[in-house]
Specification:
By secondary structure, the chain is of the alpha/beta class. The protein has 15 helices and 15 strands.
């Protein structure tokens, strides 16, 4: 990991450190476009065409009802899933909004109510490993929000089946459809709808660059869907002072590096942090990882930034806007007010990022690529929409009407004014 000094960085060098690796979306869009077109034209057959091409299998049927499936998982795994599920459920249930009702002036009653996004698609990546945690992070808030149609899309195994762990969670969240497909073809199927895949209104979930490109393209198409957020490679930024355990810091950096070769791993260290020991720990722990080659490539492209003070560290972190921010310093809670841009924050030496990934209760579907400056992670709110309502009495219209008339006249919208004036005339006539 290359080391930089915050004090010695020029403005242009600082901007370069903050900038993420460029993704060649134009090239990827060109590869994804024919996939979307084929699914649009052929539906289920189009999905299966690409699943056969990319995964070597043609599931039949391509869509099933999870509730009809039998599952068999080890008790230890079931217990782990149930514990994580309960923690995530508990934290997200507390996010359900209350009715907002305000009388803005006598006789003018305004309120805001929440309604679920009715049809949602949850994309759960497959490939080298199953990801039951991702399904819990997406499915539990969807269930709590009350979404009526929940489509779970995930790549099938070589025999066309879906892992029992995924099926178990799909049943727990009340998923209505299970789409045995991954990649851009699964996203297209959910966005456009097919013979057996219901069209959804919003698609959630991480994925590779082709999945991300498909989500972005379909969001800006006649499919009329929303997506959870833009996505890039996984990220972690660790802020460490002299009280931090170098072995813990190394472990946290590597836990993110093993996600992929393009993972973004950053260490921000004060002068009293033992960098040499941390480097030694990285090398020793790296040598024991099954995904050593992947993690090594991510580490090689990552960097260390030395700062004179923790305040400088938080200043850089806010500019970088990491997906995950880990703070290993004395009394980390006193710095909460300085954190402006981060997807999820982990305070203190006993709070590894892995806890948020799996079982503490917070959501692990988070903004990457610097989007934490303006996006939040997935929550119950992500599956809800807000509708405002109002009821105005005669007294209320007499109170607010003249203001409406004056502003409508100013904007030269006479029909708007008349909609009030015609009512006020009748009110005045009857009083």
């Amino acid at each position: 990991m290359k080391t930089y000094s915050y004090t010695n960085l020029s403005d242009s060098q600082l901007k370069e450190l903050i900038r993420r690796p460029k993704m060649d979306f134009q090239s990827i869009f060109g590869q994804v476009e024919p996939i979307i077109k084929k699914v649009q034209e052929e539906g289920d057959a189009g999905i299966n065409y690409f699943t056969q091409q990319f995964d070597g299998v043609t599931p039949d049927p391509v869509v099933t009802n999870p509730m009809d499936q039998q599952v068999a998982i080890d008790d230890s795994i079931k217990d782990a899933i149930d514990t994580a599920f309960d923690n995530i459920y508990r934290f997200h249930k507390a996010q359900l909004p209350e009715l907002l009702e305000v009388e803005t002036m006598p006789g003018v009653q305004c309120k805001r109510v929440t309604r679920p996004i009715e049809r949602v698609g949850l994309y759960v990546p497959g490939g080298t490993a199953i990801l039951p945690s991702t399904l819990m992070m997406l499915g539990i808030p969807a269930m709590l929000a009350g979404c009526s149609t929940i489509v779970v899309a995930t790549p099938p195994d070589s025999d066309g089946s879906i892992a029992d762990e995924i099926l178990y969670i799909a049943k727990k969240i009340g998923a209505t459809h299970l789409l045995k497909a991954g990649g851009a073809q699964a996203v297209a199927g959910m966005a456009l709808g097919t013979q057996t895949v219901p069209k959804v209104d919003k698609i959630f979930g991480p994925g590779n660059q082709y999945v991300t490109a498909a989500k972005m393209m379909l969001q800006n198409s006649e499919a009329q869907i929303a997506i959870d957020m833009p996505a890039g490679p996984s990220e972690v930024l660790v802020i460490a002072d002299g009280s931090a355990n170098p072995a813990y810091v190394a472990a946290d950096l590597l836990s993110q590096a093993e996600h992929g070769e393009d993972s973004q791993v950053v260490l921000v260290a004060t002068p009293d942090f033992n960098l040499n020991e941390c480097r030694t720990e990285i090398n020793q722990q790296l040598a024991e990882l099954p995904r050593q080659k992947v993690a090594q490539k991510a580490i090689d492209k990552s960097f260390i930034l030395t700062v004179d003070t923790l305040e400088e560290g938080f200043s850089f972190s806010n500019q970088y806007a990491p997906e995950h921010l880990i703070i290993q310093c004395k009394k980390p809670e006193q710095y909460e007010g300085q954190i402006m841009n981060a997807g999820s924050v982990f305070l203190g030496q006993w709070s590894p990022e892995s806890a948020g990934d799996y079982a503490s209760g917070t959501n692990h579907t988070l903004p990457t690529y610097g989007y934490a400056r303006m996006f939040s992670g997935v929550s119950v709110d992500s599956f809800l929409k807000q509708i405002t309502m109002q009821r105005i009495t005669e007294e209320g219209l007499k109170n607010v009407g003249p203001t409406i008339e004056e502003l409508a006249t100013l904007e030269k919208l006479e029909a708007h004014k008349n909609a009030v004036s015609i009512r006020l005339k009748d009110i005045n006539k009857n009083t």
